Amino acid sequence: MTTTGRAQRGRDAPGHDAPGRDAPGRDAPGLPPRRRRAALARALAVAAAAGVPVAALAWLVRSESDALVGWDRAVVAAATGWTRQQPGLPRALVAWQEATQPVWLVAVVALVALVLWRRHGLGPRAAWATATVLLVWGFGVLLKDLVGRARPTVQDALEHAPGFSFPSGHATNSAACATALVLLLRPVLRRRPLGLVAALAAAVVAVTAADRVLLGVHHPSDVLAGLLVGSLTTAASYVGWSRWRPPPARAAHERGSS
After folding, report:
1. Which residue, 27, 79, 159, 238, has most beta carbons within 10 Å?
2. If we measure between CA atoms, which residue out of 102, 74, 45, 89 comes closest to residue 221?
3. Domains of the chain, residue spans
4. pTM here?
């Protein structure tokens, strides 16, 4: 059997798509208009799932809801008070803050995307991931300017941060990059390694979210909004893009011959 025949047989073999569970070519261009409209509807539904709660939070912030403002202040006061009592914790939180700046998180996604493009031929997927995290970063900055919420006022502040507060940029970008990274790696990792990556990414997001409140530089509602914007906007982008992506033929060949 020729090499081409073995590669084709590998692509058609049952269970061949176990690493990523994305069937090669399944979502290639040229889909019927009805399926394209259905894919767009799904993407918009996911985007709405993010937009509705974020819009509700933004409205409560802008209207200075007593319930939300009181809850935010109480949580920030309790969190910063606890942080002060832990020797070395403030310094560790500031170090984590610097390590998870959006520019570094986006750089990690871009680097992984570059490796997948060069080694596995997943150029369109790599371009989607890089473009998405950059757009979410910019979208988060735009939301900050639109809402214009001031940072928490903390007596004897542990840390100072510039700019507006809602949504949290660290939370937005960590959630977006974590979601994009897992989706980016789906075609090349099997279930267990991919689950490990997802767990580690979720841990980074959780620590980053806690970091913002423990340092007193964000209200908890800022962090919640950031997590929703980052994760669900990235998911909506993937749902829309995945219906138009070209078949990753080279990646399929490599998996079939391994």
Report:
1. 238
2. 74
3. 33-250
4. 0.78
